[in-house]
C-alpha cells in the first residue's frame, strides 16, 4: 500500500512535469564561471547571478585561503555569543562606507537577512506595503512579522498612493513600512524609488529597499539607492554578498541605532552560526575591489547591451529590462523548457523560468551576461537563439 506522503509526492511531481513547471537540477563539475561543465559538456554559462565574475576571482580566492589559515573553517558560534570575528567587523565597516550609511550588519544569506530584519522592525500592530513582484524572501519576511500586508500593483504609484492614504486615514496601525526590490530579478526593471520615497515622506513610512540585484550593478556598484542619490532618504538598505559580490551572505545598512537594535532582535543573527571566515574575507575583498574601480561594471553593461541588441534584432521579445538581466519571453511553459534544453545541446546554459517564479503564461529564458563573457561567446549565444527560435516556430 502506497503511503499518503508517497502518493502526494508522486502526484504533485507528475502534475508539475505535465504543466512544464518541473525544473531539473543540474550539477556542475567545475567552478561557476562564464564557462561551466555539466555531465562532461562545456557550456557558456548565462544562468548565474555572478554578474561581475568575482566568484572565480583570484584575489577573492587568496583572501578566503588566508582567512582559513588564520581563523579556521568555521566561526564556531552564533554572532551574539562568540562567533563574531574581526573579519565580520571589518566587512561591516567597509559595507557601511560603501553604501553611504552609518553602520551595517552581515547575515548568513540574503534570505536570512530579509526574514530577520523585517520581523525585527515591524509587528502585528503595523502595516507593510509590498510591491506585487517582490522577492520570495521579502514575502516570507513580511508574513513572519505578523504585520498587515497590503500589496500594491507592480510599480504602480497611483495604486500605492491610494492604499497608503487609506491605511493612514484608517488610523489602525502603529508603524507603516514600504518595501520593494531595487531591481526586480525576473524582468530586470528598476523600482521607482524617487516616487516611492516622496510618498513615504508624505505619510511617514519606513522605507526598505532590497537591493540584491542592484548591488554591484547600479550606482557605481553601491546599488539603486545611490543610483537615485537617495542614501539619506532610505531607512533600510538590504543587499546580498552572493550575486555581484560573488560569495554568499546578506547584509543590511542603515543608522547605527537600527543596527544596534537588529543585534538584539534579528533572529538569524541571534540563532544561526556566523558566516565562515573564508566567506567573510572573500566578501570583504570583493567590496574593496568594487570600491576601488568601476571597470567590471562597465564591462558588464557593455556585454549586456550587446546581447540584448542582438536578441532584439532577431525578433525575440525581451522583458522591459533596464539592467543586464535579459529575459527572453517565450510564454508557454512547455516550449520554454524545450527551448532551454535545446540551448544546452547547442552549448549555451540558460534556464527556463516558469511559474511560480513568474506568472503562468509568461515562461521565459533568463539570460545573465557577466563582465567575464567574451564577445565570441555572446555571438555563439545569439546564433543559437536564432537557430532554435526558427526550429520552434518562435521566429519566422
Commentary on this structure:
This protein has 396 residues and is an alpha/beta fold. It has 2 domains: 21-51 and 294-391, Aspartate Aminotransferase, domain 1 (Alpha-Beta Complex), CATH 3.90.1150; 58-292, Aspartate Aminotransferase, domain 2, CATH 3.40.640.10. It has 15 helices and 13 strands. It has helices at residues 4-18, 58-71, 79-83, 86-99, 110-121, 136-145, 157-170, 193-203, 224-227, 256-265, 267-271, 277-292, 295-314, 333-345, 375-391, and strands at residues 35-38, 41-45, 103-107, 127-131, 148-152, 176-181, 206-210, 236-240, 250-254, 326-331, 348-349, 352-353, 363-367. The strands form 3 sheets. The protein has a 7-stranded mixed β-sheet with strand order 3-9-8-7-6-4-5, with helices on both faces. A 3-stranded mixed β-sheet has the order 1-2-11. The radius of gyration is 22 Å and the shape is globular.
Determine the CATH superfamily of the largest domain. Type I PLP-dependent aspartate aminotransferase-like (Major domain)
Number of domains: 2
What is the rounded Rg? 22 Å
Q: What fraction strand? A: 15-25%
Strand-pairing-aware structural class: alpha/beta
Largest sheet: 7 strands, mixed
- Beta strand count: 13
Helix residue percentage = 40-55%
CATH fold descriptor of the largest domain: Aspartate Aminotransferase, domain 2
- Name of the level-1 CATH class of the largest domain: Alpha Beta
Strand order of the largest sheet: 3-9-8-7-6-4-5
Poorly predicted residue ranges: none
Shape: globular
Based on the coordinates given, report the CATH architecture of the largest domain.
3-Layer(aba) Sandwich
Distance between the termini: 52 Å
